[in-house]
Amino acid sequence: TVSAKKEGDMIHTWIIDTGIGIEPHEAKNLFNKFVRGYGIAQINPDGSGLGLYVARRLTEAHGGKIWVESDGKGKGSRFQFTLPLNPSKEGELSAGGDHLQYTRQNR
Q1: Residues 8-48 pLDDT 10s
Q2: Domain coverage including residue 31
Q3: What phi-psi label fits residue 26: left (phi over 0), alpha (psi between -120 and 50 degrees) or beta?
Q4: What is the rounded CA–CA span in Å between residue 80 and residue 10?
Q5: What total number of domains does the chain contain?
């Protein structure tokens, strides 16, 4: 299920699934580079552990936040993110080597 609502000057979006779930101790590291959730290798052995890292970097580069909540293994997950409706500054996103970089331009 995907839902979104306006909260002040932000848009809050959340995606709820009924998948394998995430243990609370895993959630804090899940958005780090090369981190994959426990048991995900059996479902998708080809993943690199970069998808959520890239999502976090892009979200933060645009002034938002991203996080996940779960009641534990086998209980699904709630991925959520916020983004400003009117970003205050424009910038440029570039990828090089093993990193992403966002450079804000002054107006």
Answers
A1: 999 999 999 998 898 888 888 899 998 877 677 677 778 78
A2: 2-104
A3: alpha
A4: 13
A5: 1
- Quick one: pLDDT at residue 57? 94
At residue 90, the pLDDT reads 65
* pLDDT the model gives residue 86: 83
User: Is 36 within 8 Å of 22 (Cβ atoms)?
Assistant: no
Residue found under tokens 């699904």: 76
- Element housing 84 (H / E): strand 77-84
Q: How many residues does the chain have?
A: 107
Neighbours of 90 (CB within 10 A): 9
Whichever domain contains 8, its CATH number is 3.30.565.10
Query: Counting Cβ atoms within 10 Å, is residue 103 exposed (0-12), middle (13-18) or buried (19+)?
Result: exposed
